[in-house]
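Fold these two proteins, one after the other.
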Amino acid sequence: MSRASVRSFNAFVALARCARRRAHRPNVAVRADYSRSNARGGGESRRVERDDGRSDGRDRGSDGRGRSERSRVSPQRSSGFTSASNAFPEGLERVSKILARRGACSRREAEQLIADGRVRVNGTVITEQGHKCDVNSDRVEITSDGSAWLSSKLTLAVNKPPGLVSNLPSADEVAACSIVEPSNAWMRSMKWVAMDDLRRATSDPSRFNVCGRLDKDSRGLLILTEDGALARSVIGGNGVVKRYVVTTDADVRESHMQSLNGTVMLDGVELLPMNVKRLGRGSRTLEFNLREGKNRQIRRVCEKFGLRVVDLHRVQIGEIDIGDLPEGAWRILSEDEVASLRDAGR
């Protein structure tokens, strides 16, 4: 970074800290004596997450113009987007539902676009939430301003330490989004990021949607996003592979490997095939590649076959690798990285 950029970022950190003190927001503190060996188990949290990712549809600080560094707009979000397709049943349907089913945005984001006059049906701007159109013949378009608003939404990578919950913390818990503050920004990988985006990211981290939870005792990569459609595609998309490095309490035998890579039932439901590798002969360390994330899946499956997980570390989601991101740090994903997640979730 240039000296001017460093001075600007230092000023940004100082202002953010002053604002946080005025708002009486406590700093995040992870207990130093937290023991990973006392893990209770869980690859995925029990906490409930709505498929639209908690987004309330409001414009969270975007000025609607997008960003020069992140200006590429998804083809589905361009002003030429249309609903016409034989994939839909015949008849009338709400415009917001059509846009959400197309993956252009979440249902709540569609409702906000309509309220702001950023959606056209057959060339006419609509503002009525209950507006319906023919799903196969009418043309539904998001305006260029609407596309810019959608593409301006931020997506972050966070390296969650054990001891934090992914979302919806109880009174005595701390959410992983609390990491997203200026002092934890991994600037080495964000030299291209505009200062306005850094301010937006840290202004209210609780607004971000979690794309695939990690339980309190697990650590590693979390994806947080303002983009409701992206959150839904990552959570529900079986094409988005998630990679974990798992340490067990005993040596992994060949019989374990056959069981883990075979047909596995959990709660009476057959899981999608897991790709499990042993990292070293007779090792206690495994690599899991999953295309779904059932509740505490990895830990429960290991327990089923006589192995107890003592450390669970998620290192990759789709093409997003945790890389050199330090534990307890965060960074903003590039437009290409976001596009790769969107493509994998289709």
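Now the second one:
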Amino acid sequence: MSGPVTVTVAEVITETADARSIVFEIPAEHTSAFAYAPGQFLTVRVPSDRTGSVARCYSLSSAPHEGRVQVTVKRTADGYGSNWLCDNLRAGQEVQVLPPAGVFSPASLDEDFLLLAGGSGITPVMSILKSALEHGTGKVVLLYANRDESSVIFARELADLAARYSDRLVVVHWLESLQGLPTEAHLRALVTPYTAHEAFICGPGPFMDAARAVLKELGLPRKRIHLERFLSLGGNPFEVAEPVAVEEAETPASVEVTLDGETRNLAWPRRTKLLDLLLEKGFDAPYSCREGQCSACACRVVSGEVKMLNNEVLDGDDIAEGIVLACQSLPLTDEVTVTYE
């Protein structure tokens, strides 16, 4: 993964009173680094008078086939980053971003998809929806919950897509102003016909928890339920200090790493985080926050054991499947095998 890149704002689009889509112009020399999968996000450097800058992650709402790089930002009541971007960003300004990252992406676009979004959770879901319709062969069902009709992001675009793909796309809107908050009973009734679909869920925590509980109760396998959680980063990868070398008296562990089709064996000092080791050794390893607060650096432990110093995004099911955060992982066993594939 490349480091921070300075990009130009090509366009700012007003989606609703509280949401803006920001289209970035990527320098030609960085085009390959900004190739992305539907459902991924960018980390944006937001200026701050108090700290110099803060880092915030925003999902890509564009789809790769559209030929643009676009994130969508919705204001939150006390959100410094979202309010600054919505109030201040204009076409022609420059900002720093990290290349696309994240694992909230379908392995294949030929599945039937059940997409559940609440509020600004539509942003990565929209990228998946458009990609599946353009390149996939299956059917797509979107359940989209919002406070009221005026807060529906991409309302016109969704209506156009539903008309264009009437044989493959079903869009169900849920408005709290008319129907109240969606409960597990409501969600169960709505999603029961689609339990053979692959599910992607993004939105407020209670909405996501309810949706996941219902899908698990209905028998969807864990590997077919995918969640994306929005968290404010505590750290700042744009201003992170280089890791300080530490004298190690212990014999290092060894780690076999597979990334981008390449497998290498490395000595792994026991007090060095896996991500720091990989970057030091020249791997193009993905990352964003480096604080254990996003899933950009997630990888799978195939054999051996590691411990994570901090984890705010992976749940028990993820960990049971061997998923860990490279930026927080230290070796527990003498030999560890890790894959990003």
